Structures are given as C-alpha cells and as structure tokens.
Amino acid sequence: MSYCKQEGKDRIIFVTKEDHEAPSNAELIADDPNDPYEEQGLILPNGDVNWNCPCLGGMASGPCGSQFKEAFSCFHYSTEEVKGSECIDNFRNMQECMQKYPELYPQDEDKESSSQAESGSGSVSTDPTEGSALPPETDSTTAASTSESAVSPDSPSLTDNQTAS
After folding, report:
1. Is 57 left (phi over 0), alpha (psi -120 to 50) or beta?
2. Does 83 score more than 90 pLDDT?
3. At a CB cut-off of 8 Å and minimum separation 6, what does 74 contact?
4. ∠ CA 52-105-36 to the nearest 5 degrees?
5. Strands 10-14 and 3-7
6. Angle CA 108–53–84, to nearest 5
7. DSSP assignment, residue 3?
8. Which residues contact 101 (CB under 8 A, 6 or more apart)?
C-alpha cells in the first residue's frame, strides 16, 4: 500500500511494486521563482544576496564566512557616493581572518606579482636592442654576424665553392 508523508518542504511518497507498474499520473508543479533552494544567481528576485550561489565559490561558509557575508552585504547594500566606501573595516576584518587560514585562502596572485616585481626591479636594462626592430633575445652583435654569414637558398655554400674551384 502506498502512502505520502510531508517533511518540511518535501513530500515523500512510498509506493509498492504494483504502483510502479502503472503509468504515472503525477502532476508537476511549475518552478517557484521565490524558492530559496532553486538556483537563482547571486542576487535573488527580492534583491537579497543568494549565499547559496555557486558563483561565490564557498566563500560564504568556512571559518571566515561571517566576515565575508558582512563585507559583501555592506558593499551590496551600500548607498554611498563611492559604493562600499563605508565597508573598509568589514573588508579589513575579512582579510585579517583569511590571513589566519592561508591553506584555505591562498594568496597565489600576491606571490606571483611579488616574484615578478623582484625579478624586474633589481635589473636595469642595458640591452642594446632596446627600441630596435630586433627581437629582444638577440643583440646587435649576434644579428650582424648572422646576417653576414647568412646564405640564401640560391647562393652556393662554402663547400660548393671549394669543390667548384
């Protein structure tokens, strides 16, 4: 014997093998645009932030989730001329929290930009080709010697000249 049980927003239907053999006469309900469990995007139709949006990448949960929510909400609802200018303390709190958990919130971009800055800041370019049409990996001395020894496909090679004479 089949029966139905309601648990919160869910309806659980228990059926027998005989019930499965008959074609279904279930009526599907149209999607509810106000259903908070439905994938909506970042902003819900009522203007609230959808903390379940996959676009947040899980930032709303975890050890710094509350700081993230405070900072993001402050920015979202900001009415200042410079949007979010009153939220600096919230973002600072979030940043301080994230720095406590570097394994969860890695700062890869900072590492890359600092290593690029270190490699570029200490060296002064003395490349003679700077401003020239030559590629940066060749210098004018190499270019001159290769252009003198360059052989076109129609010109005889040195070995051909030696055998021809």
Report:
1. left
2. yes
3. 84, 86, 87, 90
4. 5
5. antiparallel
6. 70
7. E
8. 62, 63, 64
Q: Please write the tens of the pLDDT for every residue from 35-52.
A: 655 667 888 888 899 898
Q: Are 87 and 68 in contact (CB under 8 A)?
A: no
Structure tokens at 9: 């927003």
In Å, what is the CA distance from 111 to each residue of 24, 93, 115, 117, 132? 59, 21, 6, 10, 33
Tokens of 150: 């360059």
Residue 128, CB half-sphere, CA atoms under 13 Å: how many? 7
What does the block give as tokens for 152?
């076109």
Mean pLDDT on 67-77: 95
pLDDT band at 130 (very low <50, low <70, confident <90, very high): very low
* Average pLDDT, integer, range 104-127: 60
Phi-psi region of 84 (alpha: psi -120 to 50; beta: other; left: phi over 0): left
Q: What's the confidence (pLDDT) of residue 90?
A: 97
